[in-house]
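**User:** I keep going back and forth on a fold encoding question. It is easy to fool oneself when nobody else works the same problem. Could you pick a protein and write out its sequence and tokenised fold? Could you put it straight underneath, so I can go through it closely?

**Assistant:**
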Amino acid sequence: MFNEPIVVQTRVYLDALRWQYEQNTHKWMQWNHHKNLATARVVQLFRQQGYAGRIRTILNPEVTYPRSSAAHDQQAAHIYDLFYNRVFLDPAIKGGYPAELLALLDKHQIEWQATPEELAIIAANTVDEVGINLYYPHRVKAPSHPAWYYEHFELPGRRMNRSRGWEIQPEIIWDMAQRMRDEYRNIPWFVAESGMGVENEAQFKNAEGEIQDDYRIHFISEHLHQAIRAQQAGINCQGYMLWAFTDNVIADERLQKSLWPDRNRPR
């Protein structure tokens, strides 16, 4: 099953940040559909073979907040949610694409193919549980240009992990938990990735050479508290997992944001 299936085609075709550097929403949506279909077919095979246990996928929906309570900002957040979150959440858990998303794609003449047989496979083969990667919130606002649907918005005074440029907001776990309960039939789920990478952690060594990473302890404590809060509220949150140092090697960032504390040591 996939981990963060939204990422590659979004970088390649929606944002055009990677080779082939082609902005093509048609290809982006087709790739999304093929991943959703592939997930459903794996679920179908898993059940046909009679394997014991539960089957899951791991998604990375961004908990999205509007700039304000104004209708245009609320709508911006809603549309962002359709494109980046529900395009995978809904097929995996509910068995189909949101009608609003399909209408929006049709409005903008986005060409992609999905046969009735493929949609039936997706509808009949939803996952048993889902892992959710949560690191930071996403904030949007209504754009100043009428042809756009949303713009990114940075909350003044927000807490930041400066090494990664990510906002620190532990309540994203609680907000996602409520959404899983209210919109996705309280399916079993867990936080599959969370954490903070900090550059040049050697600066935090004490006299004994130990990294005094109280900032990370505080980060984990705050986020773990929200996961426990969700569980205690009857939400089907199964656990909280960290993005560990062994999973923090990103080639296109040339290791600049790894969790290795001392960059001068061989590795």
The first strand starts at residue 56 and ends at 59. Confidence is low (pLDDT under 50) at residues 251-267. The longest helix spans residues 25-48.
